[in-house]
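Example 377.
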Amino acid sequence: MQEEQNERAQDTDKKPIVQKAIGFPCLQCGNQMSFSPERGQLYCSYCKTEKEIPDKEIEAAEYMYFPEDEHFEAPVWENEPGQVLTCPSCGADTVLGAAAMTATCPFCSSHYVTEAPADKAVISPETMIPFRISEAAAGNSFTEWVKKQWLAPRKFKKEAKKPEMKGIYIPFWTFDASLTTNYRGFGGKRRIEHYTVRVNGKTQTRTRTRTDWYPIGGQMHLDFDNIPCPATKKIDRALLDKLGGYSLKVLNVYNPAYLAGFLAERYSIGISDGFDIVRKTMELRMANHIQSSLHYDTYRGMQYNHHYEAVKFKHILLPLWLAAYSFHGKVYQFMVNGETGRSAGRAPLSALKIALLIGGGILAAGLLLFLLMSLGQ
Ligand SMILES: [Zn+2]
Ligand SMILES: [Zn+2]
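Predicted structure in complex with zinc ion:
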């Protein structure tokens, strides 16, 4: 089994994989089927027919990446003409899954989406987590969230009642790497020193902390597995971090059937920029590992020389329900983790409500603050 997997992985290394975004017509009625998160399979909303998605039981291919010259080889994500939209307002490239439609940019709600130029090649995703949270569930958490936005303007709360939640697969990179680090510097050991002083003709004993410094140096090795990095600039990163992450150990092999009825973003952070982000995480972990295994109390003048080997990457898609709404010319996002259902969002703040809150009910003070805040805007 293992050998077979290896052979297949090598096979895919040699030939470019063409992943055509074909439609999924219903065998009963001919309408387009969509992926149903509740059922975990394709579903025809016209005649209620279900169709299983065959899970390919192969390990997803990983591709080599050479950080020195930023070289890599990986299959291209082939999309049909007209299947990728580009947004002149925020720059997002959105892939429409079969049966998916959108007239606005899902990231900034701009109405001016156009077809992306055909010559822009991007790496194909290898693995993904299909949606497990339904659109209805995501919509409910939005409604609940809006109710709790006490400080949002009333107009916003009214308009936000019927959100358009869009199911989007967000691109991520994950990296494996073998890191060898040569280090040198000084390790410090603290000790308590007793000393005497004379106060008013009397001798007193006092203590102080001294640090003795010792030169240190050596080599440490660490292997990293599946360190993730979002490959998108279009998502509010602070909100994304609040969603609690995804279970990256159980990934499905990429299958366009999971995209049926959904959207996907083509990455806006390329592989070399992605690796630069991830290497900072790895190098920080390495420094912590070195310092904690040397048992000094403190360190100074540490120098690290990092050497990477066997860097491999995967391009994966993770599910996210997103509502992007503009209010007074500013874009706010609300999002739900499409795997776990955890949500996070941003709402505009009402200057008046804040003023009243601070004013503590004293109308004059509140109005004054309101005026000041309005002038400041
Ligand atoms: Zn049907
Ligand atoms: Zn946009």
